[in-house]
Design brief:
This protein is α+β, with helices and mostly antiparallel strands. 43% of the residues lie in helices and 24% in strands. The protein has three domains: 7-73, Integrase, N-terminal zinc-binding domain (Arc Repressor Mutant, subunit A, Orthogonal Bundle); 82-129 and 203-234, Alpha-Beta Plaits, CATH 3.30.70.980; 131-201, YebC, transcriptional regulation domain (Alpha-Beta Plaits, 2-Layer Sandwich). Strand 4 and strand 5 (168-173) form a beta hairpin. The relative contact order is 0.18.
Length: 246
C-alpha cells in the first residue's frame, strides 16, 4: 500500500469552509468551464460529469452550471481561463504544487510568488517528481457495511489503497481506473460522494509544534488566493492539529 497525503484532510475541510464563504461556487464554475472545453456533454465527458455531480452536491444552482458550460463552448461571452501548475518549496523544505485557473497569468504568479516569499519559501525548482498522480474517491460507509469488505470490493475493481477518517473513506486507484472503480462501487450499493484525480506525495516531511502551525498557515494562505484551485504539499503534521483546520 502506498502512502497518503495528509493534505487531503485539509483540502476537504477547506472545501466545506469555502462553501460557507461563498468561494466554492466560483472554484467549481472554473472547473466546469475548464472541463467542458474537452466536451460539453457530461455523458461523453467523465471529468465534467464528476465535477457537475460535486457542484450539485454543494447545492450550486443549475443555471450557474449551465452558464459555466456555455462559457466553455462560446455560447456565452465571458472570461477566458488558463490552467497552470506552479512548483516550489515552502518553509522547512516542503515541496508544494499549486494548480491555478486564471484569466490573468501575470497577476496569479505575482500573488503566489509573494505568498511563498512571505513565508520563507521560493517559487522555483522542480518538485513534480516527488508526487504521483492517483485517482481518489470519497465514499460514505453505510451502517453495517464492513470496512474490510469495502476494501476487498475496491481492490477487485482496481483500487490500490484506502484511508478512513471522520466516518468517510478515501479510496485511491490508478487514474485510468477511476470511472471503473466508481461505477463498480455504485453497483454494489456504495455511496460515492466525490471523485477526482489528485497528487499524492511519495515521501513526506514530518513537522510538529510551531513548524506545523506555520506550514498550515502558509498552505491556507495559498488556498485562499482567488486564482488557486488546488494546493498539494508533502508535509505530515499531527492529526490533532489537522482537526483544528475547518
Amino acid at each position: 500500500m502506498a502512502g497518503h497525503s495528509k493534505w487531503a484532510n485539509i483540502k476537504y475541510r477547506k472545501e466545506r469552509q469555502d462553501a460557507v464563504r461563498g468561494k466554492l461556487f466560483s472554484k467549481l464554475s472554473k472547473e466546469i468551464t475548464i472541463a467542458a472545453k474537452n466536451g460539453a456533454d457530461p455523458a461523453k465527458n467523465a471529468t465534467l460529469a464528476d465535477i457537475i455531480e460535486r457542484a450539485r452536491g454543494a447545492n450550486m444552482p443549475k443555471e450557474n452550471i449551465e452558464r459555466a458550460i456555455k462559457r466553455a463552448t462560446g455560447e456565452l461571452p465571458g472570461i477566458q481561463y488558463e490552467e497552470i501548475v506552479y512548483e516550489g518549496y515552502g518553509p522547512y523544505g516542503v515541496a508544494v504544487m499549486v494548480r491555478v485557473v486564471t484569466d490573468n497569468k501575470n497577476r496569479a504568479v505575482a500573488a503566489i510568488r509573494k505568498i511563498f516569499e512571505e513565508h520563507g519559501g521560493s517559487l522555483q525548482g522542480s518538485v513534480a517528481w516527488l508526487f504521483e498522480r492517483r485517482g481518489a474517491l470519497t465514499v460514505k460507509l453505510a451502517p453495517g457495511h464492513d470496512r474490510d469488505e469495502l476494501l476487498m470490493q475496491a481492490i477487485d475493481l482496481g483500487a490500490e489503497d484506502m484511508e478512513e477518517r471522520d466516518g468517510e473513506v478515501l479510496i485511491y486507484c490508478p487514474p485510468d481506473r477511476l470511472s471503473a472503480v466508481k461505477e463498480g462501487l455504485k453497483r454494489q450499493g456504495v455511496t460515492v460522494e466525490r471523485v477526482e484525480t489528485t497528487l499524492v506525495p511519495k515521501t513526506t516531511v514530518p513537522l510538529a509544534g510551531r513548524e506545523a502551525e506555520r506550514i498550515l498557515k502558509f498552505i491556507e494562505k495559498l488556498d485562499d488566493q482567488e486564482d488557486v484551485q488546488e494546493v498539494y504539499a508533502n508535509f505530515d503534521v499531527p492529526e490533532e492539529l489537522l482537526a483544528q483546520v475547518g
